[in-house]
Amino acid sequence: MLSLSTTALLAALPAVLAQTSSSETVLGVYMFHRHGDRTPKVFAPTNLTDLGYREVYTSGQYYRSRYIDDTATFRIEGISPDMVNENQIQASAPVDNVLQNSAAGFLQALYPPVGAGADTETLGNGTVVTAPMNGFQLIPVNTVESGSGSENDAWLQSTSSCYKSELSSNEYFVTSAYNDTLSSTREFYQKLLPIISQAGFNASTATFDNAYLIFDYLNVGRIHNATIPHSNLLTPEVVTQIYGLAATQQWNLAYNASETIRAVGGATLGSQVVQFLNATVASAGSLTGGKFAVQFGAYGSFSSFFGLADLIAINDGFTGITNYASSMVWEMFTNTSAPVTASNYPSTKDIYVRFLYSNGTATDATPPIQYPLFGTNQMEFQWDDFVSRMNRFSIGTTGQWCSACGNTTGICEPYADSAGSGSSSSTTDDGRSGGCSNGISPAVNGVIGAMVTLAVVLGLEGLAMLVFGLRVVSKKRLRGGNGAAGGNGEAKL
Ligand SMILES: *[C@@H]1O[C@H](CO)[C@@H](O)[C@H](O)[C@H]1NC(C)=O
Ligand SMILES: *[C@@H]1O[C@H](CO)[C@@H](O)[C@H](O)[C@H]1NC(C)=O
Ligand SMILES: *[C@@H]1O[C@H](CO)[C@@H](O)[C@H](O)[C@H]1NC(C)=O
Ligand SMILES: *[C@@H]1O[C@H](CO)[C@@H](O)[C@H](O)[C@H]1NC(C)=O
Ligand SMILES: *[C@@H]1O[C@H](CO)[C@@H](O)[C@H](O)[C@H]1NC(C)=O
Ligand SMILES: *[C@@H]1O[C@H](CO)[C@@H](O)[C@H](O)[C@H]1NC(C)=O
Ligand SMILES: *[C@@H]1O[C@H](CO)[C@@H](O)[C@H](O)[C@H]1NC(C)=O
Ligand SMILES: *[C@@H]1O[C@H](CO)[C@@H](O)[C@H](O)[C@H]1NC(C)=O
Ligand SMILES: *[C@@H]1O[C@H](CO)[C@@H](O)[C@H](O)[C@H]1NC(C)=O
Ligand SMILES: *[C@@H]1O[C@H](CO)[C@@H](O)[C@H](O)[C@H]1NC(C)=O
């Protein structure tokens, strides 16, 4: 009993002391976070390394000192500083060992063990029980549907599970830009064979097709291996080019200005941000809503969001692959001078949102940087304005998702009938919503075939997932062509 009231006191005190230095009050935060350092995808299943654990833990420490603890620089109004209040914190990650473990590592630092004194409980019969591990705090990590298995999967877009998004990404493989790069870099990749053959690449698979896998394998090797055979081939220029090619390929798979459905990861994230922060505002009267949410996910969602929110207009760097343990943050705050209380919660016209991004582990020395969004010069958006701008590309409900993705089975079955007419303003390819087969070019089908072949050729441990992912695409493609179009037979495809 004693320990409980001590805890309550600990929780209450700092809230009173907070925000003395600034008239600004942070009301809620949504964060999207990449995993830390991991093993290479070619040797799936991937695992978070000690280094990766350290990275996400360090990021957690930084954000604790920014948002949570008594002396936090941007302390979130009313957040429990030491002992986690599960109503206030929401953590999520797809079903994926690297991402789930990254989330757990981050949370350990966000709310460290409560320590001696606060880690005991007195039972009804007088027995005092001490919690394990110095009062280690257990915080559940919920699963999100999209992105499962992404760290084992070379074909990241398949983990979106969105039919039209996969289709759109695949279209990149039949552009002349892709073709040109494939042929102009053939020799470059062949020269890497002495190094990458250890990972199973051979003359037919050492190409731009595998730009990301090759980059990933060498990147991990350069971090972890004291010696790399034939490392003389890895001159700084070559290393830069390996990265640049992978980044080009992955960017084009994640975002395309004329087919926003390709960026479905960013579109669903946009909605998650708005819904979470909106719920914080909606619970104003009681201040019981969530205050801090963190979702772990793959670099592809960063790219998708960067594209949709027009961050590339500011800086070309946003087309790069974000580093391990990167984080994007949406901070919702008010700058009204009156203290924020349940009965005196700011009205939405006095609530603003700003966006910050850390390209790699956030620390005091390398804090996240604030960027303007939506192709404007604006660093802060009034809440209603923020919501309406995010909603221009967000996909929030299952119905919207099914319609935009053109999925009609499984969770989408209830929405299948309206899939053709319920066009979402966030997609530019509504013409295909009816499953009309003219959206599916035979050429693309050929590329799918090529990709399957590629995966088979690679034939590495763990690439079964890649093969499987691609086969699914191709099979569903057939169904899309037959199904809703009604009349277009299999023959066409
Ligand atoms: C990851 O861990 C699993 C078991 O924990 C192991 O089988 C696998 O080989 C590890 N992967 C790598 C690349 O070390
Ligand atoms: C008190 O209750 C706990 C949990 O039920 C039990 O393990 C313990 O033996 C009890 N102690 C005494 C002195 O009865
Ligand atoms: C968008 O994708 C299409 C093919 O799907 C391609 O022709 C076009 O060049 C892409 N746009 C950009 C800006 O990459
Ligand atoms: C790409 O190259 C293939 C053959 O390698 C060719 O069939 C296809 O037409 C080319 N596509 C474009 C858009 O250049
Ligand atoms: C790094 O070392 C691991 C383990 O010995 C090995 O499997 C891998 O091929 C090496 N990577 C490179 C790029 O040499
Ligand atoms: C915000 O929440 C309120 C109350 O739950 C709801 O009526 C409103 O539609 C939500 N707005 C958005 C943009 O989600
Ligand atoms: C993040 O870092 C990577 C690698 O250092 C770089 O290529 C990329 O452009 C950076 N992204 C941004 C937005 O600066
Ligand atoms: C609050 O911040 C917004 C956005 O930066 C600004 O336009 C407004 O003037 C500020 N209000 C006060 C009271 O400081
Ligand atoms: C490349 O390796 C795969 C097995 O991993 C093999 O099936 C294929 O024939 C090889 N290709 C060449 C050109 O050696
Ligand atoms: C949507 O369709 C794609 C391709 O047909 C499929 O791989 C994916 O599992 C579907 N997603 C859901 C949620 O049913």
From TrEMBL:
Segments spanning the bilayer are: 446-470
Keyword annotations for this protein, in alphabetical order, are: Membrane, Signal, Transmembrane, Transmembrane helix
Q: Does the keyword NAD apply?
A: no
Q: Which GO molecular function annotations are given, in alphabetical order?
A: phosphatase activity
Q: Tell me the leader sequence span.
A: 1-18
The protein's matches in Gene3D superfamilies, at most eight in alphabetical order, are given as:
Phosphoglycerate mutase-like
Which PANTHER family does this entry report, sorted A to Z?
A: ACID PHOSPHATASE-RELATED (PTHR11567), PHOSPHOGLYCERATE MUTASE-LIKE PROTEIN (PTHR11567:SF142)
For this entry, the protein name equals: Histidine phosphatase superfamily
